[in-house]
Amino acid sequence: MINNLNQLSEKIYNTDFKSLDNEQIYKVLSELSNQMLLQRKQNSKDKRKLYYLSAEFLIGKLLKNNLENLGIRDEIEKILLENGKTLAQIEAVEPEPSLGNGGLGRLASCFLDSLTSLDLKGDGVGINYHLGLFKQTFKNNSQLEIPNPWLEKSNALIKTDVTNIVKFGDLELKAVMYDLPISGSGQTSNTLHLFDIETADESIVKDGINFDKKDIKKNLTLFLYPDDSDLDGRHLRIYQQYFMVCNAAYLILKELQDNGHSLDELDKYAVVQINDTHPSMIIPELIRQLTQNGIAFERAVEIVTNTCAYTNHTILLEALEKWPYESLKQIVPQLIPIINKLNEIITEKYPENESLHIVRNVPMKFKKVSSINKPYYILKNIKIVHMATMAIHFSKSTNGVAQLHTDILKEDTLKDFYKIYPEKFSNKTNGISFRRFMYYSNRQLSDYITKLIGDGYKKDSNKLKELMKYIDDEKVLNKFAQIKKDAKINLSNYIKETENIYLDDSYIFDVQIKRLHEYKRQQMNALYVIDTYLKIKKGIYPAHPICVIFGAKAAPAYTMAKNIIHLILCLQQLIENDKDVQKHLKVIMVTNYNVDYAEKIIPAADISEQISLASKEASGTGNMKMMLNGAVTIGTMDGANVEIAEYVGKENIYIFGKSAQEVIKLYETNGYKSSEIYENNQAVKDAVDFIISDELNKYADLTKLEALHYDLITKDWFMALLDLQDYIKVKNKLIEKYNDPIAYRKMSLVNIANSGYFSADRTIQDYNNDIWKL
Ligand code: 26Y
């Protein structure tokens, strides 16, 4: 090994390995792992291959994961130690690729990990965003966005000689493909293909993350989710999406032919998984490329329908993308004849009197109900193309991501489609990479589990159940508690170093880490903090000191989400300045929450906050990650929490709040009035009014908090006040339980032991058995 490292060091830096600085070591090690992974690439020509198309891949740092998967981590660590270095120091200089935002992107990455670990053949296809998702900073207790130039210091990508011309009306752009090798715990590797333009120009970005949205030649691959609050922004998203799928289609058809197969055999040798609607233009684009190469239109539709499969990740309207027909006509005119024909197929099959209602509560009437947007609905004469509708009609499978979510799709959101195509619908409950989120990032825990039950659980996560035989063994329970404490100390040290805030590891670490969205209800957690603060001021203390930890980014144009961040940061400062309150309560929102931070926070969590408004969280995956690391969940019966509750039993999870059915009913009947709860409950009123109190406003921009306050008492669309009292009650019970250490440790162990089902290895096997058949 050391010879290899010296050779590489000589080649790249003209010196031997031990003379390198940390950044150089990172580059040499990542070069080494890329080389080893390329040798593991799968070359079989006759197996069906998966193409996982996604706007996001939230892959996290790669080095440690790759070294572990290649089985050389210990050896490398030893060599580093001999040179006075640690792997953690090298990891610290590795930039985290900024190619994703939240659950959907992290799921895509967990899937690539599991596919590869199971030695299945499947590549990811996405975009190489130069500045990625913005980097979050805080100023005056508010979020500021700055570019994240992760590529500058990364050594992950390999430039290939694959290029394509992508046409947008008169504009032609040259695309270049970059490859990022994907490792797994098996013997093979896969690839994440990221497409880019050569003319991307980071210098057009000024003043935070602002840039000329019309300058497509320079901006196309700069940012993930550029602000789409105006038409130019929405158009840029269409450019990005088409760019991704056009390149994907070229790649898929070329690989098919290079392997000696005909275009007519596409569905035999390829399957395309469409990750939410963002890559759904792959359907008309594949049809376009097939027909251009001589396949008849009807046959092309049939082949593509048999090749594609669609995953829905949300029932929120904003995420079921609808593009103005005129915009598509302007940007991707070549798709228009195809979209029109697909529309005709559906209108003929399902004439308008059949009245399919695509989504509830759309504040507009559908004039027609058929295809692309059932097909186009007419709103003030604007035709709209509904991407989810197209994806369902012209793919072989539609799946939700947790049982409850799939049930809601079938019975409610997509029920008219379910009536037509019952056989297309299925559930695939999400899963996570146990390797990244425990075995490699919480080694102490993983090593101890291995000591107790052997390492069979690493291949078959259901074997974690064997831990149940230690449920009454106090020595074992105490050792688990010691491991949790060490993780809390590690996190506390890291936060002290990076954020200059001190967290006492004797406090309960109560963790809510996820995208900031009103439906996820970080504002409800903030109201819990206020309620606790007000009680402390009256001399009523929480049963155990608690530290509420948040990590979240708000979309730059999502004002209410940013107001919630502002509230949390103001509370953090208020409490930082109050020594008495701090004895019982701390709050911190960590800066720029990302995968790297997640890997440090998750092992340290005592409580996992999964408090979305029931029916709104499709699945959640952070819930699974924290469960696997021994946190106890407090949550609503939403998303995968429902399945977690089934696995751990109701004594080992803290459930509160209204059910999905009750919530759906409230929306249907317009039956929720937050003002009533606010007026009729003094504790709720006090907590809500504290948002605009003088005490807090010392640290605040009053207009932001007033807007939040006003919204909560007049609208509160995601019903934070509805569940607030129950939430406070149940959370305080959980805190009380913490004072019974043995009981809490047992709950923690039950959570770890019953997490096996939530391994992405299981999820991938489900997709493969039912949809992909690789
Ligand atoms: C285009 C824009 C409107 C948009 C941008 C990002 C739409 C959706 C998204 C991201 C969605 C997302 O991350 N969804 C999450 O997917 C996870 C994986 O299935 C789920 O666990 C989680 O509940 C869901 O919120």
TrEMBL record:
The enzyme's E.C. designation: 2.4.1.1
GO CC, one annotated term: cytoplasm
Cofactor: pyridoxal 5'-phosphate
Keyword Cell cycle included in the entry's annotation: no
Catalysis performed (reactions): [(1->4)-alpha-D-glucosyl](n) + phosphate = [(1->4)-alpha-D-glucosyl](n-1) + alpha-D-glucose 1-phosphate
Keywords, in A-Z order: Allosteric enzyme, Carbohydrate metabolism, Glycosyltransferase, Pyridoxal phosphate, Transferase
Record PANTHER family: GLYCOGEN PHOSPHORYLASE, GLYCOGEN PHOSPHORYLASE, LIVER FORM
Name of this chain's protein: Alpha-1,4 glucan phosphorylase
Species in which this protein is naturally found: Criibacterium bergeronii
Gene expressing this chain: glgP
